[in-house]
Each structure stands twice: as structure tokens, then as C-alpha cells.
Amino acid sequence: DIRMEQCYLRWEEEECVQSVPGRLRMDSCCCAVGAAWGSGCERCPTPGTKEHRALCPRGPGFSNRGDLLTGRPFYKDINECKVFPGMCMNGKCRNTIGSFKCRCNSGFTLDMEERNCT
Fold it and tell me: Which fold has domain 79-118?
């Protein structure tokens, strides 16, 4: 799906929660840290399922940047630190291939999801 829609970090009780600023394609949202996507609040496929593998064939952290002339897929690392600017609050976000790491500021520790410092 090449539409640019809202991405959400959490999906709770069939509701989209914690929207990310801007608009993303479904694969850029769901193959990274998104839990739901789109105006219809579609839950992202669960990692490990065939639906997730179809959307994210290179695995988590990569999205299709297909060649518009040939139509062939080209998968590129998603820079979660740029795409999701709210990551690593009270710390520094460092992009890695297929993921990201948070390094917390002095006096803060990483939360259970390893996405923010509290």
C-alpha cells in the first residue's frame, strides 16, 4: 500500500493510540515500531505471521523503496530516529541496521520497551 497515512505506536482495545507526527506508508509504519496504521485504524500484522512477512520481506526495520521505472522492490533500512521523532525521550537515538538503540541521559533508565528513558 503506497498511501501516506497516520501511524500509531500503540493499538489498544481496537483503538489507535499515540500517533506519530506526519504521514507514513504502511510498510514504513508497520515494519518499524508502529502498531496500527491508516485512517481506518488497521492493526499492523503481528511479526512472525505470513501477513507480516509479506509486508516486511526483509524483516523488521526495512521498507520497500521500489524502483518506479522497473517496479522491482528495493528494501532500505528505516531510520527510526528520523521517522519517529518521539523515540528515546530523555536520551539519544542511534539508528542501527534494521532497528535503533536508545542511550539515556544521566539519571534516566531505559523503559521496558527500550524506546524511551524515564
Answer: Laminin (2.10.25)
